[in-house]
Amino acid sequence: MVQGTSSWAGKSLVATALCRHLARQGIRVAPFKAQNMSNNARVVDGGEIGVAQYLQALAARTPPEVRMNPILVKPEGMTRSQVVVSGKPNPEISALPWRERAPHVWPVVFESLQSLLADYDVVVLEGAGSPAEINLMDCDVTNVRAASTADASVLLVADIDRGGAFAHLYGTWALLPREARQRLRGFILNKFRGDASLLAPAPERLNTMTGVPVIGLVPWFHHELPDEDGAAPPVEGDGAMSTVAVIRYPFASNLDEFKPLEQVARVRWARKPADLNGVDLVILPGSKHVASDLTWLRSAGLDRAIGARARQGAPVLGVCGGLQMLGMRLHDPYGVDGAAKGLCLLPVETTFEREKITRRGTFRFASTLAAPWATLANREVEGYEIRHGHTRPLPTAGVAISAGIGWVQGSVLGVAVHGVVESWDVLQALFGRVPQYSLDSTLDRLTDVVMANVDARFIEELVGLR
Fold first, then answer.
1. Could you tell me which residues come within 8 angstroms of residue 130 by beta carbon, excluding any fewer than 6 positions away?
2. Are 220 and 307 in the same domain?
3. Would you state the pLDDT for residue 237?
4. Which residues contact 77 (CB under 8 A, 6 or more apart)?
């Protein structure tokens, strides 16, 4: 199991690398995270899971499935979240206070973990946050309890770039219950840059104090895998690239789908009107709380800036919740999201239904698309839908993708499906470039770096390969 001293320490990175490393050895390996908190999800057989476990399954060369992330918590406000259980939203558990959820979700976690352990040679578990959150230890299902259930050896990762990594490692070890301490087999320092000789004698002293060796020093390196929550600042592209602004509202979702854009365009998060200056394309991404994010967008003045661009004929793309915002109105008869007036840039209306649509599919752009979207005409894309909103066109809406998936009016295009800008065909059509690295080659490159900087033999012994 890979745990971390904090969020963003590098748990997902190391777990992903271990999945690919073990798969290379011919081991049948599966990822597992009992409970993930993220608004970035992917559709798999049975519903939706967090993007990190989806990518880890691909790294493991095994089909992603809901058992790999049985509980997904999707924030909808500062104190409210939707709880997805085995791929499907559970409104009853979602309504419970945080501490009261554990007894309801643990049976699902236990069954999923046990079945994966029975079906695979190795299961790589990932923790959440820190295992030493002593204020939440009584209701934790992802760290100590999951490790104990799986009888897992634990590696603990710290982000050394933040400073204080040795204190983080020792403090976490010291706060853990005795049984959890005994499971700790190795420490990994992640995001290192500088002179490694300056670390001495800290690793040796830490080993003396805890009995746990430092078994890895992973350097800071660039890779093309999205962050678990997709919120990291985009990597700057070269000056010859087009510039794309992605509106970064508070509850933006599925931001990971824009990671391939960084290889073909300069991508920036936009939080104020000035962030749209000089850009070639504005994207309104998905949202976990469309009405709330629409209110934020107006308070930031971005509604006027986006409207002005559309009236000037500059391209604006809305994806899922972004499409819904671009429409005339949001209707919410069941209290799912919120009712509101839209930006009125697309002649469509959206009604939020109780049931959430989660499905994958192949979609084709209409042959009649005009500039600035003409290059997408007849292009076929694979994508996925995760939405409560059902959007219907008004008479003047132009069809961009049939079957109620996309509409266009002038320079404004809205699609209900995620994954459009992950398509190399679409990227070539819009930007005249394709990414240098595929997802699979990214997983290989990431694994090569991580495994070259940890004690691979030590880890293989932990899982019984030696």
1. 3, 4, 5, 6, 7, 143, 172
2. no
3. 67
4. 251, 289, 292
* Nearest to 358, CA basis, from 417, 283, 405, 290: 417
Domains contained in the chain, number: 2
Matching residue, tokens 């800071």: 220
Cα 250–Cα 256–Cα 262 angle in degrees, nearest 5:
110
The pairing of strands 406-409 and 412-415 is antiparallel
- Tell me what pLDDT residue 278 has: 94
Write out residues in the chain with pLDDT < 70, as ranges. 229-231, 237-240
Asked if residue 423 and residue 324 are part of one domain, the reply reads: yes
Q: CATH number for the domain including 6?
A: 3.40.50.300
Angle of helix 11-24 versus helix 439-452 axis, rounded to 10: 100
pLDDT at 374: 98
Q: Within this chain, do residues 194 and 299 fall inside the same structural domain, yes or no? A: no
Same domain, 138 and 265: no
Shared domain check, 276 and 179: no
Cα 261–267–273 angle (5° rounding)? 140
Judged by DSSP in three states, 153 sits in: coil
CA distances from 382 to 82, 149, 161, 203, 423 (A): 26, 38, 38, 48, 7
pLDDT of res. 79:
83
Residues designated as active site? 320, 418
Inside any domain, residue 237: no
273 φ/ψ angles, rounded to the nearest 5 degrees: -55, -35
Q: Which domain holds residue 47?
A: 2-224+441-462
**Does one domain contain both 205 and 170?**
yes
Angle at 254 (CA atoms; ends 248, 260), nearest 5 degrees? 90
Please tell me the predicted confidence (pLDDT) of residue 360. Answer: 96
pLDDT the model gives residue 345? 98
HSE-CB of 186 using CA atoms within 13 angstroms = 22
pTM: 0.95
- CA 116 – CA 433 distance, rounded (Å): 40
CB within 8 Å of 227: residues ≥ 6 apart:
8, 12, 256
Q: What is the DSSP letter of 268?
A: E
